[in-house]
Specification:
homodimer; mainly alpha; 434 Repressor (Amino-terminal Domain); two-stranded antiparallel ribbon; 5 helices; DNA-binding; DNA-binding (chains A, B); Cro/C1-type_HTH (chains A, B)
Chain lengths: 63, 63
DNA sequence: TTATTATGTCCAAAGTTCTTGACATATTCA
DNA sequence: TGAATATGTCAAGAACTTTGGACATAATAA
């Protein structure tokens, strides 16, 4: 599963650290997800979507 | 996190077993998710959405 | 250049999801 | 009513996500 987190985060001008804080996780978690080490939980996917102002269906690309 | 899986599944007239097969998981997994024992992984959330013909953002209610 | 900030990566532990196998109850139907 | 199908639940273990701490490199700014 791919995602647009890094691109949207940069467009918003925030760091991995800031995004992590907003979502209640640590920086490494954001880093791993952006670099496709693993997918977030559904709950974190929703938090990321909310913080980045996009739908889950837009933020993640399934297939 | 709540979801509309049971309602949509029944509207489509399929069993937990059939939905499970379509999504590549076992029946207990569907049962647990419908009854809020735990949330699905993001990947399974997308599979469920695809099978039930709704967006992830519609199928799951965050907050 | 030097200091600071941001990002990438590693490891082990803790927590969550999913499976397998099984059994109980509920629902449907002949 | 009895048989078959559907749903609910349990427990142990495998697989995956997240954390905390640490260190390396990259990028930015003074």
């Amino acid at each position: 599963m791919k995602n647009k987190i890094k691109a949207i985060r940069k467009k918003l001008g925030i760091t991995q650290e800031q995004l992590a804080e907003d979502c209640g996780v640590v920086r490494q978690t954001i880093n791993c997800i952006e670099n496709n080490k693993y997918d977030p939980t559904l709950e974190l996917a929703f938090k990321l979507s909310k913080t980045l102002n996009v739908k889950v269906d837009e933020l993640f690309i399934y297939e």
